[in-house]
Each structure stands twice: as C-alpha cells, then as structure tokens.
Amino acid sequence: MRRGRTGVGLSIRSMAESLKIALNYKPEPNWLTYSKLQELADRVELELQDRKLKPHSRIDVQGFIWASIGIEDGNYGKAE
User: Fold this and answer.
1) What is the pLDDT of residues 6-33, one digit of tens each?
2) In this structure, are residues 71 and 13 in contact, taking their beta carbons and an 8 Å threshold?
3) Which residues contact 16 (CB under 8 A, 6 or more apart)?
4) What's the rounded Cα separation, in Å, for the pair 66 and 2?
5) Which residues partner with 7 through β-bridges?
6) DSSP 8-state class, residue 14
7) Cα–Cα distance between 60 and 10 in angstroms, integer?
8) Pick from 15, 38, 56, 63: most CB atoms within 10 A?
9) 47-71 pLDDT, tens digit each
C-alpha cells in the first residue's frame, strides 16, 4: 500500500469512500483497519469481475488499485 506523509495515501481513502467503505484508519497496525482494507480489496475484485475482468489473485487486485491511484494522481507510468 502506498504511504504518504499522512500514512495511507489520500487516494486510497477516496477510493474507499467512493465504494462506501470507512477505513477507520489509524497509523498503528490494528485489526479494524486491516479488515477494512481487505473489504476494499474484496469490493474492487467484485467490481473488476462485474466488468468481465478476471483477476487471478489479490496481486492483480493490488496492481489495479495502485495503477488507479497513479492515474488519479497523474503519476501513472512515471518513474519515482
């Protein structure tokens, strides 16, 4: 997961909000935030499947999330 100055990147928070998922983010590792991030991945996977895309694993889902965030931030395809 991408980290910014505030912990979880703002784009992943906005993605979660667009899917009506409250991340309940706290900077220290905790079960609630972890389970909400899993819920986000579940929802993204279902959205991909609804669009006839077939992620083979969570790595595909993670890659889609990262690419989506890069596109939203205007950084997709740019070297860091």
Assistant:
1) 445 667 888 888 889 998 888 889 999 8
2) no
3) 22, 23, 36, 40
4) 8
5) 4
6) H
7) 21
8) 15
9) 999 999 999 999 999 999 888 888 8
> 4 forms bridges with which residues in the sheet?
7
Q: Which amino acid is at 15?
A: M
Give the integer Cα–Cα distance in Å for 33 and 58: 18
Tokens of 75: 């950084």
Give dist(CA 17, CA 39) in Å, integer.
12
Burial 16-51 (b: 16+ CB within 10 A, else e): beeeebebebeeeeeeebeebbeebbebbbeeeeee
Domain ranges, ordered by start, for the chain = 3-73
Helices (H), 1-80: 10-18, 31-50, 58-73
